[in-house]
Amino acid sequence: xxxxxxxxxxxxxxxxxxxxxDHAALDVARGSVYALVGRNGAGKSSLVRCLLGQxxxxxxxxxxxxxxxxxxRTSLMQRVGVVSEDADAPPEMSxxxxxxxxxxxxDKWDQDSVEARLRTFGVPLTSRFGSLSxxxxxxxxxxxxxxxxxxxxxxxxxxxxxxxxxxxxxxxEVIGDLADRGTTIFITTHDLAGVETFADRVGMMEHGxxxxxxxxxxxxxxxxxxxxAAQPVAIDTAALRxxxxxxxxxxxxxxxxxxxxxxxERMRSTxxxxxxxxxxxxxxxxxxxxxxxxxx
Amino acid sequence: xKNALVIAAREFEEKRFVIYAAVAFAIxxxxxxxxxxxxxxxxxxxxxxxxxxxxxxxxxAVAVISGASFIGRDLxxxxxxxxxxxxxxxxxxxxxxxxxxxxxxVGTFGFIIVPARLATGEHWTRMISxxxxxxVLYLLTVAIALFLIAHVISTFARSRSPLIVFDFVAAVICxxxxxxxxxxxxxxxxAVIVSGLSLALxxxxxxxxxxxxxxxxxxxxxxxRRNHLALSQFLWTTMAVTLxxxxxxxxxxxxxxxxxxxxxxxxxxxASGPFAVITGxxxxxxxxxxxxxxxxxxxxxxxxxxxxxxSTRYSRDGRNAVxxxxxxxxxxxLLYTRGKAEPVDTGLTIAGGDFIVSDDGKRIAxxxxxxxxxxxxxxxxxxxxxxASVRLPDAMYVRxxxxxxxxxxxxxxxxxGGVKIMEIDARSRALRETGFIASPKFVSFYLDPAGARMLxxxxxxxxxxxxxxxxxxxxxxLPTTGPVKAAHYLRDGRIAVVDGSDSATVLHILAADxxxxxxxxxxxxxxxxxxxxxxxxxxxxxxxxxxxxxxFEAVNINSGVVEHRxxxxxxxxxxxxxxxxxxxxxxxxxxxxxQERIVAWNPATxxxxxxxxx
Lengths: 296, 614
What we know:
Chain A has helices spanning about 45-50, 75, 95-105, 110-120, 135-145, 165-180, 190-195, 215-220, 260-270, 285-295; strands spanning about 5-15, 20-30, 35-40, 60-65, 65-70, 80-85, 150-155, 185-190, 200-205, 210-215, 225-230, 240-250, 250-255, 275-280. In chain A, the strands form 3 sheets. Chain A has a 6-stranded mixed beta sheet, with helices on both faces. Chain A has a 4-stranded antiparallel beta sheet with strand order 2-1-4-5, with helices on one face. Chain A is of the alpha/beta class and about 300 residues long. In chain A, helix 4 packs antiparallel against helix 5. Chain A starts with a strand and ends with a helix. Chain A folds into 2 domains: about 5-215, Rossmann fold (3-Layer(aba) Sandwich); about 225-280. In chain A, about 35% of the residues lie in helices and about 30% in strands. Chain B is an alpha+beta fold and about 625 residues long. Among the domains of chain B are: about 1-255, no CATH class; about 475-614, 7 Propeller (Methylamine Dehydrogenase, Chain H), CATH 2.130.10.10. In chain B, the strands form 8 sheets. Chain B has a 4-stranded antiparallel beta sheet with strand order 1-2-3-4, with no helix packed on it. In chain B, a hairpin with a 5-residue loop joins strand 19 (about 465-470) and strand 20. The relative contact order of chain B is 0.06. Classes of the chains: A alpha/beta (about 300), B alpha+beta (about 625). Chains A and B meet through helix 2 and helix 3 of A and helix 1 and helix 6 of B.
């Protein structure tokens, strides 16, 4: 049995001449939460479609639980809950009809959980899917995805359209709870603050490439913002590599991607940098720094 | 299977409003029947007719709309991931949706028809013919075909892929290929093969769409362009392979040689020269009929249209045959010449009517008949120019011959009886009436080699007259000794007449002016035709009463001796349209022998040889 719930190897997706995913590779361990971030058009959705066996890559492979996602899609989907980026259920169907339809396709189905969740978020079972708000549609999709007690939950930008309460519920109750129960979660999102508390690993896509794939704790520990009282400042770049360097007030600010206390103290003792303040960074700040650095 | 049914049920549930609409349309005929201004005398007629019209229209509308949306719209609206993110196989998704679509068509049709059928009872069976069951099946088949076609077009169009240009080209190529496959079969009057092949192609196309749909979802899944690509590949590959196989089959069917003909062999031949046309069928080729123009002297063959076999005209010099060949909007007229491998397209196109060939084959006159007029045109074949064109008077039947290369003489059986004789000169382009034969009965006649005189005989009369061929004036009545069985000019200008009772039939040889020269008793003959002469012999085909067999007989004109006899099953008619004796002497006579073989018999030697068939 594979230790990885997801393995993506050398995956390439092209649409004509445009390369959507460029030799991407990543692993997601069973029971972990993986957050994939990236700007719009970075290739996240194409990668997710390959992951769900909905699209055949031109090169490479995507496997779920050690099985090829393309060729074994039908059986794998018994174990995978999916919340798509766009609400995809037929608009004429009622929520109850969607639940009934799904229940007939899956081996496991918890109708009570579906009804409870929808009741919590005020989504009537009799409503036509097309008449629901964007957030309600997401809730319906999420309820269907959770009704099968999935081993893997794939959430493609799940917070899009959700209000603050629903977003909080999603992250704290649903994902947190599932993560605690050992469900593997693969989430693509722009909401970095939301995933920061529970994501075990994070990946970043840019122009189809995975430019970052790292444990969240390790990532956060090596990024620091250093503020200097005076400028210009000369930093020993061999010891600390600044990703971003800019003026800040009367002094300067550097964001370093390979921070460690020993190196910092050594630099402070050998350089005439004066007063300096070191701050930890949020995931969002780190990604802005990385995206900005790559763009520059 | 279970998932397919789940998906079919979901489709039904989603489109239940269509069923509601069908129920409304099922009620409508009964409402119409109680409206006085609409129902007329028979409310039941109104119910039957309106139910049939509503059911037909509704089923076809449902077919087209459902076909255009059941996959294509889900793909273009990005909703196919609803199915593909569930544990449902591509085949289940496809066949589930397909089943629902087809059941929807059949169901809505039934919803509207059945109540009307039950309510009208015997009235229905009186109004709708006994073939109504087949009509219903035919209609539903058409509706399902439209459903499948709409799916293909929808998939192609909604993908917004430039590949649609390729699809258009492929569809055109398929259509043109099918037309080219069927044309030679239709030319061969192969109705069974044409309908069978058309049905097979339609079934394969339907199966290609049905299984192509499963293939497109398996290969393309949620991507509309890849769906398009996959369906396109499957559909056109299947059709290409099918058409190649069909082409091979058609090629085999039409590759018949004259020697392959084994059944229903028929032939006609030229009165002079060695040209003959044979048609027939062959084992394993169903009802396909091949036709060939043969030069029996050198063995040359040309494949020709079977329908045109009986429209062949030969030049009197025996060197040319003129035949029509099916073309768009009519038929092209081709000139076949002995010793030339390829026929010459004369540039003439005829749409019905008839044509007349000059003695040397260099001029052709066409008579085209429309509802309001008959038009005669004379063409010069070498220059492909029209020399003259005139409107002909009303006539029941027109016969004609080139007296000279420029002068064409016509014999027109008028609608009120009698034969009008007219001549047209290609140089002056003037049509002149030169004579008239008054007769309420049909007059058969045969001209001398120069076209100056003719033998005329009225139908059902035993009087044979010698007439002026240009004016129709009677020159003299020829002496006969009983019922006239046949009368012909010989190539040297003398006259041969067969008459007498069946038990004592006599061949008379007369001089050109009708003076008797020799009487040759033939014995007991029931029916006699004079085929021609080779200078020394007159060749007859008769029914020999003693043997009860068709018999060729070569009668020596000088000695009066029957030199050779040849039993035959069926004489290959020669010179049916000829009005004068040929220029060349008769060399061989053809007949259909045992096992449908075409046999040539030499009246001078009595020898036979096989020409074709069997």
